[in-house]
Known about the structure:
Blueprint: H1 12-23, H2 33-45, E1 49-55, E2 63-72, E3 77-80, E4 96-101, E5 109-119, E6 124-129, E7 151-156, H3 160-163, E8 168-179, H4 192-200, E9 204-209, E10 220-222, E11 229-236, H5 244-247, E12 252-257, H6 258-265
Antiparallel strand pairs: 1-2, 1-4, 2-3, 3-6, 4-5, 5-6, 7-8, 7-10, 8-9, 9-12, 10-11, 11-12
Amino acid sequence: MSARRPSPRYDPTRRRLLAAALALPGALFLPTGARADLVATVPRIKPSIVAVGTYQRTRSPAFQFRGTGFVVGDGQLVATNAHVLPERLDTANMEALVIVLPGDGQTGTVRTASVAATDRGRDLAVLKLGAGPALPALRLAASGGVREGQEIAFTGFPIGNVLGMTPVTHRGIVSAITPIGIPQANARDLNPALVRRLANDVFRVYQLDATAYPGNSGSPLYDPASGAVLGVLNMVFVKGTKESVLSDPSGISYAIPVEHLHRLLGEVR
């Protein structure tokens, strides 16, 4: 007589496993690893995220959003990108540089700011807040130590003009640490500014396997577990036209390493 395998419904081991799965239906969907870390970290990051723009009472809308910033240092400083700042302010008509604390996402607290330091070569700026209480500051990681393949996250205001002042978090990995000036395929595509940068001022940035959008400029790039800031998001690779950033994002973004922000903060008095 040949041996027969027991029917699954009479297999006691299988029945115990099935009962355990039915008793804990959410067990298979619990976040693990970096995802679990991020769930705990995001609430600590969001109070430090601010919108950067200009404010003019007689204008509609009075606030014009330009990018994201985040609080650093003593709680009276905000880090962002240099390209987020306006080229000039219409001071004759009372236009002012401001940051907005998002609040409930519909309304927010407006505070004036001034430029404390800039490094346009590395696309960084530090703002000094006007009168008001200190805000919760993010901790900056030590220089170096970031590795390719490392999990990262960033929080900011993607398409803030449309989606409003609600901080949004994206995650991904550091896919490469690469020079900021990348030689073009054809020599005629090189411009004088790029040639000078390649020759005299090459520095490395983090290429990210993560999707960012207009408005994310100035967002803090941070470690999902500790929340320590690793860099400042500053640009997105565009596959076609600027409009395609929204309709067909490349999923490739870049961030300036935090060591350059450390250096710029050292210039703030």
